[in-house]
Amino acid sequence: MTPRWRDFARSWWRTFAVQGSWNYDTWIGAGIAYCLVPLLRRIYAGDPVALRASLRRNLEPFNAHPYLAGLAVGAIARAEMEEVDPERLARFRTALTGPLGSLGDRAVWATWRPVCLLAAIAAYLIGLPAVWSVMLFLAVYNVGHVALRVWAFRTGWSAGLGVGPALRVEWLERGPVRLVPLVLLLIGLDVALLGRRVFELAGTGLPTALAPVAVVAAIAAFRWPRRMGRVAIGLILAIPVAWWLIGVFG
Amino acid sequence: MPLTEIPLDAVRWLVLVGLGGLLGLDAVSWPQVMVSRPLVSGTVGGWVLGDPAAGFLVGALLELLSLRFPPFGATRYPDAGPAGLIAGAAYAGAGNGGPGALVVALIAGWAVGWIGSASVHWRRKLNARIVTPTETLASDPRTLERRHRWALRLDALRGAALTAGFLFPAVAIATLSADAGAGGPRAVIGAAALVTALASAAGAGGRTASFGLRGWPLILVGAAIGVLLAWGIA
Asked: Of A17, B23, B129, B147, which has the highest C-beta tally within 10 A?
């Protein structure tokens, strides 16, 4: 039986919780099955044996970026409705795991989220009130977030097992790379403006020698991110120790 | 500020613990609208204790420190929701004090973030038990739904427990340290170390976001624009 609008809405809403039972054995396998339940109940209405068999298939290990998981849910539901051979469906799930993870990581975690966060920080440091800056971040970020979830779910259902070509869209493949320069510019901008704010709080003038030190630190960190990332935390942890030493010997 | 003047009464503590549960849930489990980012959770923590701008500032610093740790696949990264909430509340609770409170709030946020990360790891292990065996889950969709929702509740409980355990100590230590590092060479050293740390963290974060592009000159261009803007604002 073809799912109704309400079943799609329920299933899509559940994709927000697809990672709720994330674990090292099946990743989001149980989450995908959880999202599929409203659709499978309709597709296999009156046939509990087929429903159980479908659930068993869809509890297998699976992983994807959470915002793109709806694409898998839609495509799998379509395949279940069209009674696709279970072995073919299992191969499809396996093939989908890698692309859905890497595309989402690049598009969302590596670029879209940092752009929105860094822009909100810049907006505050330029003069927008803190609460408005946060609201701006949440509004802009989630327009992209929800749109991506809607697109993924609709594409999955309409393309079924043919989602491969649908994933090769320009904005998803090339968009993240185009946002990289903006991320890097915003990082530099925020560090300079936050640095000024830190010195304001300390009630002291900016030492002239600090600018080249900060520049060298940033470039070195770009070259050796892991090592310099540790140096950053080490420097922060060393501040109370330095204050204490100045108190003792100063 | 003496400890007796900390604006963290029982009601605010309970509100923050409840929020800690919600923010802990948002990072991974539901609904991932990013209220769990330190920028947001720090502002919320500061707002509950009367100073959202103070919470925002700590949140922004934690954001830059966290840039290097995007949540790719099964990687470990700081659990930013409760961490930002606690850091924001600690700095705001200290009365937006001097650099001492800021440094303590940052360290508290970073530490809670990694303790939270360990708790996420244990929760993932526990989830493996909750959603097995497959045969049991497949036997009835309601069993699957019930188990999945248990896992969600467990995550909220984890966030609330983290906040309950570390909120008061962080606010108290930040309050007691509010005047540390103020004035003289301490202020200059503290601020210089913090800015150098930020620059390092930003460079490292930029590398993560650059997809292998040689993009550090863009960070410098951004910093130059920032310096000009800071001049303009001053």
From this structure: B23
Whether B65 sits inside 8 A of A233 (CB atoms) is yes
Q: Cα distance from B77 to chain A (closest Cα, Å)?
A: 12
In contact, A218 and B220? CB cutoff 8 Å? yes
**ipTM for the complex?**
0.96
Give the tens place of pLDDT for each residue, B30-66.
999 999 999 999 999 999 999 999 999 999 999 999 9
Closest residue, chain B, to A121 (C-alpha): B60
Contact A190, B60 (CB under 8 A): yes
Structure tokens at B73: 């696949």
Of A106, A127, A189, the CB nearest to B223: A189
DSSP A73-110: HHHHHHHHHTT--HHHHHHHHHHHHHHHHHHHIIIIII
Parent domain of B170: 3-182
Looking at residue A140, its amino acid is: V
| pLDDT tens sequence across B132-146 | 899 999 999 999 999
Of the partner residues B29, B68, B222, the one whose CB lies closest to the CB of residue A17: B29
* Separation in Å, CA of A164 to nearest CA in chain B: 21
Structure tokens at B98: 């001097």
Give the C-alpha separation, A82 to A2, whole Å: 10
Give the residue from B150, B165, B182 where a domain finishes.
B182
Domain count across chain B: 2
**What are the sequence ranges of the domains in chain A?**
5-206, 207-250
Burial class (CB in 10 A: 0-12, 13-18, 19+), A212: exposed
The answer to whether B198 contacts A194, with C-beta atoms less than 8 Å apart, is yes
- A112 DSSP 8-state letter: I
- Under 8 Å CB-to-CB from B164, ≥6 apart: which residues? B17, B20
Q: Are residues B13 and B66 in the same domain?
A: yes
Cβ-based contacts of B103 with chain A (< 8 Å): 236, 239-240
